[in-house]
Write a structure and sequence with these properties.
seven-stranded mixed beta sheet, alpha/beta, binds magnesium ion, eight-stranded mixed beta sheet, binds adenosine-5'-diphosphate, about 20% strand
Length: about 900
């Protein structure tokens, strides 16, 4: 349902309180008191059959008895009453309800499920149950039983824990930080994290979102909403339960290492959320994010009256990946002229212990003017020579005056060692982020830097995949289906080798031998070439072959082979009498002097579905535990990012006499495995260990694959992030001899767009963007090419022979997936050839298949060509009530 009616929840004009009570100590009393004390400006309607009046307010027996329909209802009555209250509220036309009550249970027949179903019939939105409630300071709404009401501000809080929501509210009151809203979401039977992320992403009062998560239940919805929100404003997340592992029966190394918290980490990283690990860090981040908007980079200048603290701050800054700003020569000269000769002469700018307000201000003024830094951190250590308060006031005045003069003021942070309440008040009053220690100050700033870097790196254009990368999906499907039809969970080694081959993942030649004699016959030609061979037990029941003495390497003669073969058989029969034994696997012995052993795999997480694992491989993988996870689908950028998160990535470069391994081949293998996961939902686990990597490329020596039957609709992906929808690739005929390739846009298309825009006339650009556009920046085009296929679609049309872009059409659905906006652009020299028409038809077909109810667009009135086409396609055309120059065109699909 997403943001439907959330306005009535978060900014209601009137509120009814069910279970309002005059009895001190009751929930109904606390809620009513909070509503009144916060000064809610609209009417408050207490509802309670036992009273005519409570605390001066008229009270009615039931919600149906109210003369007016309230926007919001707050429910504090016992659990069994909730479903009927929800029904009555729905009938009355109430927009939203906060269910503070706990104990509605879980599962299909619970009171919670009943309430949810009833609410859905009338479109009533439910927050909770089992929550602290909602605080919306701009609406002066305290719809919670928190003890105090914080001020309005720029942070939105979404919390799965009521206690944490209350703690954050308290922190805000103590630290004079305000909120746009604090929502305790409880059991999320309706309004969930994804809905609220969608709401706050577009809420103009919210500058940053704080998220407290215990577990996610709707992964796909969460990922879409989180990605969209994080691209608009910082989203900080803290997740509890880092050491609670999912109940995964792990049969592979990958499965064992893909713990639930690590998967959450990968999901947050992919969405661009900023993860913090404790409340202190959350508050540091909150302090920065609620005050600072335009931090341009990470070059920090430090102004201090004590050298030691400045140096400590610089150490921290380096630890956390920040940059120590230089002092520009001109600014240094200026500082020389205003400071005593004993000043440090460099960053940290130590203006010496006796510095008073004037010296601080002079130095600060110079640093504010220095283009070599992006932010300034001001320290003060108390001395007998100057008053810390006076210095604080002078610094605050300086910052305030630069803010009033500059459109993009430079951020200033402060830390007053041992600062008293008066100095804190000074900084709060001027909205200057302040911290009690140098660690917190630097960390606070670096949160914003990390957020900006993460988003920039997620928006980088990935390199195109090589043209010759082809997968044989059909061959792979046959192998998987074959195992499923025999009710087998594990593919056997020959099937695994064939599956890898189908996705062009290099694997050692693998042969099957039924008995030792056959093994000898297969080994003979290899031995004759001077190759050594490897024998392994071949059994679908034995997953870890070495554990049962089932692997023998380095066999160099027929005798060796014969002896090893019978030993392997004996070992297996002795140690695993239950196992069905198919025979032996024969492989050439791979000897690569500089090979690094890696592990690559897929595990299936109960919440996020398939996840990709990369790390250091070999037989000690779990012990070394050097790994990183990522959600598919992966492109080459994401694959490289995944590799870069591990320690083993460092030995992929050249060191000593070891040549660099072909990292691009490893990245490509990750992309292939991600494709395998996307194409085959039945695959539960893949474990390639070891994958050898060296200067010649990569080679898998051993892999396991497990499968199971899944019920997944064809149109729906089993991945948490909707992959490239290749089922929408089409060849359209523009003329009998002019085939055009049309497909969903890909991030790699950026370069094609850059060229495309040069071939659009200025007047066509204006018709499309409603404004003259001269400069197509990376971030501009990235917004067109890097889309979330779960929410948007864009089709690009290519000339098949030249590969050049001819036109594009896009469709962006609102968060509720009801109405989608379209926009279209065709190369100027191709107008009137029917391409626009074909693209419009395609987008209508797509919208219909996607369940969108209405397509809508804004068209300049002078764009008669477009308006005529819309009319012929059956669009309804109406003038835009808000803008004379525009027409609104719409097409109903439902
Ligand atoms: P498992 O993991 O079931 O114990 P593997 O097939 O991975 O069995 O073999 C165990 C180890 O033997 C591998 O980690 C690798 O070091 C080595 N090995 C396996 N196959 C080969 C091969 N063809 N050439 C060289 N070494 C091999
Ligand atoms: Mg192995």
């Amino acid at each position: 349902m997403s943001t439907y009616r959330l306005q009535q929840l978060l900014s209601p004009r009137s509120v009814a309180l069910i279970g309002a009570s005059p009895r001190r100590g009751s929930l109904g009393y606390a809620l009513l008191k909070n509503l009144k004390d916060a000064g809610f400006s609209g009417p408050i309607y207490p509802v309670n059959p036992h009273h005519h009046e409570i605390d001066g307010l008229k009270c009615v027996p039931a919600i149906g008895d109210l003369a007016e329909t309230p926007d919001l209802m707050i429910v504090a009555t016992p659990a069994p009453t909730v479903p009927s209250l929800v029904r009555a509220a729905g009938a009355k036309g109430v927009g939203a309800a906060i269910i503070v009550t706990a104990g509605l249970g879980h599962g299909p027949d619970s009171l919670a499920a009943q309430s949810e179903q009833i609410a859905r019939q009338s479109g009533l939105r439910l927050l909770g149950p089992n929550c602290l409630g909602l605080i919306a300071p701009y609406a002066k709404l305290n719809g919670s039983f928190a003890s105090r009401m914080p001020a309005p501000g720029h942070l939105a809080v979404i919390s799965q824990s009521g206690a944490i929501a209350a703690a954050i509210a308290e922190w805000g009151i103590t630290n004079a930080s305000g909120f746009s809203a604090i929502a305790s979401i409880g059991d999320q039977i309706d309004v969930d994290i994804g809905d609220l992320l969608d709401y706050f992403a577009l809420d103009s009062k919210t500058r940053a979102i704080l998220l407290y998560v215990e577990s996610i239940s709707r992964a796909r919805k969460f990922m879409s909403a989180a990605r969209a929100a994080a691209r608009i404003k910082p989203v900080v997340v803290i997740k509890a339960g880092r050491h609670i592992e999912g109940a995964q029966a792990a049969a592979t190394h990958t499965g064992a290492m893909a713990g639930s918290d690590a998967v959450y980490g990968a999901a947050f990283r992919r969405a661009g959320l900023l993860r913090v690990f404790d409340m202190d860090e959350l508050f540091d981040a909150a302090e920065t994010l609620s005050h600072v908007r335009n931090l341009k980079g990470k070059r920090l200048a430090i102004l201090t009256n004590g050298g030691g603290i400045g140096v400590l701050a610089i150490d921290r800054l380096r630890d956390m990946g920040g940059t120590v700003a230089a002092v520009s020569p001109a600014i240094k000269e200026r500082l020389d002229s205003v400071l005593p000769s004993t000043w440090s002469g460099a960053n940290p700018v130590d203006i010496v212990g006796d510095a008073g307000p004037d010296r601080y201000v002079a130095a600060l003024e110079a640093l504010l003017a220095d283009p070599a830094n992006d932010a300034i951190l001001v320290f003060n250590v108390p001395t007998a020579m100057a008053s810390p308060r006076e210095v604080a006031q002078a610094v605050a005045n300086k910052v305030a005056s630069q803010r009033s003069r500059s459109l993009q003021p430079k951020p200033v942070f402060t830390s007053w060692v041992g600062g008293d309440q008066t100095t804190v008040d000074i900084f709060n009053h001027t909205a200057i982020p302040h911290y009690s220690t140098e660690v917190e100050a630097v960390r606070g700033m670096m949160h914003l830097v990390r957020y900006q870097e993460a988003i920039a790196s997620l928006m980088e254009t990935p390199p195109s995949l090589p043209d010759d990368f082809k997968t044989d999906e059909k061959a792979a499907r046959k192998i998987v289906d074959g195992a499923l039809s025999e009710d087998r969970r594990w593919l056997d080694p020959l099937e695994v080798a064939a599956l890898m081959a189908a996705y062009a993942i290099p694997i050692t030649p693998t042969y099957h031998a039924t008995d030792p004699d056959a093994a000898g016959r297969i080994a003979a030609p290899l031995l004759a070439e001077g190759q050594k061979v490897v024998l392994k037990i071949h059994s679908r029941d034995i997953v870890h072959k070495s554990d049962v003495g089932g692997v023998r390497v380095g066999l160099s003669s027929a005798d060796d082979v014969a002896r090893a073969a019978s030993e392997i058989f004996n070992n297996a029969k002795r140690l695993r009498p239950d196992a069905r034994i198919e025979g032996l696997i024969v492989q050439p012995m791979i000897q690569r002097k500089y090979a690094r052993e890696l592990i690559l795999g897929i595990a299936t997480d109960p919440v996020f579905g398939p996840v990709i694992l990369f790390g250091r491989g070999g037989t000690a993988v779990e012990v070394i535990n050097d790994k990183a996870l990522a959600l598919p689908p992966l492109d080459l950028n994401l694959a490289n990012d995944l590799i870069g998160q591990t320690r083993v990535s460092r030995i992929l470069s050249a060191y000593r006499d070891v040549p660099a391994a072909r990292r691009e081949d490893i990245a490509m293998t990750l992309v292939k495995i991600s494709q395998l996961a996307a194409d085959h939902p039945e695959i539960d686990e893949i474990d390639i260990n070891p994958l050898l990597a060296d200067e010649r490329g990569v080679l898998a020596l051993d892999a396991r694959v497990s499968v199971s039957r899944k019920q997944i609709a064809r149109s729906q992906s089993h991945l948490a992030i909707r992959p490239y929808p290749k089922e929408w690739e089409r060849v359209l005929l523009l003329a009998p001899d002019w085939p055009i390739l049309v497909r969903p846009v890909r991030p790699e298309d950026e370069g094609l767009f850059t060229e495309f825009f040069t071939q659009i006339s200025d007047s066509d650009l204006r018709l499309r963007f409603f404004a003259p556009i001269k400069d197509f920046s990376h971030s501009f085009i990235a917004r067109l090419t890097q889309i979330d296929y779960a929410r948007s679609m864009a089709f690009v049309a290519f000339d098949q022979t030249s590969g050049k872009l001819l036109g594009a059409v896009r469709l962006h659905a609102d968060a509720n997936h009801d109405v989608a906006e379209y926009a279209i652009l065709v190369r100027s020299d191709l107008k009137g050839r029917g391409l626009g028409w074909k693209l419009m038809q395609l987008v209508i077909e797509y919208a219909r298949a996607d369940g969108i109810k209405q397509i809508q667009g804004e068209v300049l009135r002078e764009n008669t060509v477009m308006l005529r086409m819309c009319e012929e396609l059956g669009f309804n055309i109406a003038p835009d009530p808000d803008d004379q120059a525009l027409s609104i065109v719409s097409y109903r699909l439902a």
